[in-house]
Amino acid sequence: MLENFPFYLGLLIVILLLIMLANKIKVAYPILLVLAGLVISFIPGVPLIKIDPELIFFIFLPPLLYEAAWTVSWKEMWRWRRIITSFAFVVVFLSALSVALVANYFIPGFSMALGFVLGGIVSPPDAVSAGAILKFVKVPKTLSSILEGESLLNDASSLIIFRFAMIAVATEQFIFSKAATTFSWMIIGGVSIGLFIGWLFMKAHKYLPTDANSDIVLSLLTPYIIYLAAEEVYCSGVLAVVSGGLLLSNNRHRFLNSKPAFAV
Fold it and tell me: Which of 59, 134, 164, 233 is the most buried (most CB within 10 A)?
C-alpha cells in the first residue's frame, strides 16, 4: 500500500489536470478520465490496483449520487415525474430484458438469469456523466431535466434487477410473490429512510451551533450514513441517498442561511 502511495498521488494530480483541461476545452470530464484510464492501463510497470467491489459501492457511489441530487431541480423532477419514473424503471427493465434475451439466444449456456445479471450491469447510464455532458450540450430544459432525473433513479432499478438476478442464479429459482414484496420494500423503505435521515441532518444543520467547517463535515457524512442505514435493512441505498439529497437540496436555503444566535 505505502510503496504505491506516490502512484496514487500522481493519479490524483492527473485527474485534477484532466478536469481543468476538460473545463478549458469544454468537454465532459468523464470522457477524458475514461480515455486517460485506458492509456494508463497500457503503460508498462503500472501497479496493479485491487479494490473490493463492495468498497467501490460504499466509497464512491453515495457521494456521487448525493452531489448529483443537489444539482437537480426538485420542481422539475416532480413536474416530469411520470416520464422520469417510467424511464428509470420500465425502460431499464426492458433494456435488461433485451440484453438477457439476446445473451441467452446467442451465447451457449448463458441462462436468462445470467442474462439479467448482465442486463442489470449495462442497462443504466451513469448519473454523473449525464449531468457533466449536459453542461456542454444545448438541449431544451425539459429534456435536460428528464435526463438528469432519470439518470439519478435508474441506478436503483438496475441494482435491484442485478440483486434479484444474482439470487436466481445462486438458488436456481425465482419466487414472484417474494420478489414483488422485496422489490416494494426496497423502494418504499429506501425512499422513507432517505427522507427521514435527510430530515434529521437538516435539523442538525439548522439548530446545532455549527460553523462552515462543521457544515462541510456533516455534508460529507450525510450520504454515507443514509446509504449504510438503508443497506443495513435491505433497502435501496441508491434511492435513499437520492431522496435525502433532494430533500436537503430543496430546503438548503432554509437551514444553511438561517442559523440561530447563540450567546457567548
Answer: 164
Q: Report the C-alpha gap between 233 and 249 in whole angstroms.
A: 25
pTM of the model: 0.74
Sequential DSSP letters for 70-125: HHS-HHHHHHTHHHHHIIIIIIHHHHHHHHHHHHHHHSTT--HHHHHHHHHHHSSP
Reported as a single tens digit per residue, the pLDDT across 55-109 is 877 888 898 888 888 877 777 788 888 888 887 788 888 888 898 899 888 888 8
SS (H, E, C) 19-55: HHHHHHHCCCHHHHHHHHHHHHHCCCCCCCCCCCHHH
User: Domain-by-domain residue ranges, the chain?
Assistant: 1-50, 51-255
| Rg over CA atoms, the chain | 21
Per-residue exposure over 28-47, b if at least 16 CB sit within 10 Å of its own CB, e if not? bbbebbeebeeeeeeeeeee
| Distance separating alpha carbons of residues 56 and 37, to the nearest angstrom | 16
Is the domain spanning 51-255 CATH 1.20.1530.20? The answer is: yes
Question: Sign of the CA dihedral 19, 67, 83, 100?
Answer: positive
8 A C-beta contact, residue 148 and residue 130? yes
**What is the rounded distance in angstroms from the CA atom of residue 215 to the CA atom of residue 221?**
10
Cα separation of 172 and 170, whole Å? 6
Q: Are the C-beta atoms of residues 238 and 189 closer than 8 Å to each other?
A: no
pLDDT digits (tens, 9 = 90+) for 176-202: 677 678 778 888 999 999 999 999 998
